[in-house]
Automatic annotation (TrEMBL):
Protein's name in the database: Heat shock protein DnaJ domain protein
Cell membrane keyword on record: no
Record's keyword terms, sorted: Stress response
Start-end of Polar residues biased regions: 70-84, 166-175
Pfam families in the cross-refs: DnaJ, Pentapeptide
Natural source organism: Hyella patelloides LEGE 07179
Domain J: 7-69
PROSITE patterns: DNAJ_2
Domain of life: Bacteria
Compositionally skewed regions (Low complexity) per UniProt: 97-111, 118-165
Region (Disordered): 70-177
Length: 300
């Protein structure tokens, strides 16, 4: 068992015996790195490899979480079973003498009922119509035959369930989530949204000024005309995000992935995008038409 667990810990890059918190954090980091949506759509070979890797990560996380929960439940039961029981207190115990029996009361009560009619039961059976001994058998014969395997067959025909995972392994997922509330024009300034998953949500014209969005998953989010002044977007995943006319003044974009995002008309004045002369933001396929760049110039 320990050898199997060790292999699952290795998949998550952990040592044998790592805590549940370490398992969850390692899973989030690896799922962020290996998500197929971070790869170019035209490279199907890499997408398939990353999807397979993500399946292994999901499987390892699920088994290790189950192992930790079972150990936690077992330790709780063992602690409760070893708890010493309080000694019984006999100081307030009182002896109650049994009531005296009435030796003839039962006999006298039997003498009081009226005498029995010995043949009444026989006569009532004689007057009753004769039984139909085979009626139950005949009714079962006329009933339609049972289908003993119908439930099994219906389960066989149903499609197999897909286990839930923190991130989807499909690169063709639809990120429009109708069950999420429309958050357009919401005031979320100075909020703590570190590592939150807002993929596909509508936050157009929302106020995220000085909010912490570091390590958040913002794939295909709608932030058109949103206020992100001074927001912390350190290592945020903004693949394919809609940031048209967004206000990103003085925002921290170090380590952010803006691949395929639309920044047309956005204001990036004073945004932090580099360390020294090295650009620290991924800008593959970004649209910057009419955007104000961090140095104040306008991109044509």
């Amino acid at each position: 068992m320990s050898s199997n667990l060790e292999s699952y810990y290795k998949i998550l890059g952990l040592e044998l015996g790592a805590s549940l918190e370490e398992v969850n954090q390692a899973y989030k980091d690896l799922a962020f790195i290996w998500h197929p949506d971070r790869l170019p759509r035209e490279n199907q070979r890499l997408i398939e490899k990353s999807a397979e890797k993500l399946k292994q990560i999901n499987h390892a996380r699920d088994l290790l979480r189950s192992f930790h929960h079972q150990n936690s439940a077992a330790s709780t039961v063992s602690k409760s079973s070893n708890k010493p029981q309080a000694p019984r207190d006999y100081r307030n115990y009182r002896y109650t003498a049994p009531s005296q029996k009435q030796p003839y009361s039962s006999y006298q009560s039997r003498q009081s009922p009226p005498p029995r009619q010995p043949y009444s039961s026989y006569q009532s059976r004689q007057s009753a119509p004769p039984r139909q001994p085979y009626s139950s058998y005949q009714s079962r014969q006329s009933a339609p035959p049972r289908q003993p395997y119908s439930s099994y067959q219906s389960r066989q025909s149903a499609p197999p369930r897909q286990p839930k995972s923190y991130y989807s392994t499909s690169s063709q997922d639809n990120y429009q989530r109708p069950y999420h509330k429309d958050m357009s024009e919401a005031d979320l300034s100075h909020g703590d949204f570190k590592e939150k998953d807002f993929a596909g949500r509508n936050f157009s014209k929302a106020n995220f000024s000085h909010a912490d969005l570091s390590d958040s998953f913002l794939h295909k989010i709608n932030l058109e005309e949103a206020n992100l002044t001074g927001a912390n977007l350190y290592r945020a995943n903004l693949l394919g995000a809609n940031l048209r006319k967004a206000n990103l003044r003085e925002a921290n974009l170090i380590g952010a992935d803006l691949s395929g995002a639309d920044l047309s008309g956005a204001d990036l004045s004073g945004a932090i995008v580099s360390k020294g002369k090295k650009i620290m933001v991924k800008l593959t396929g970004v649209k910057l038409t009419g955007a104000t760049l961090p140095d104040g110039s306008i991109h044509n």
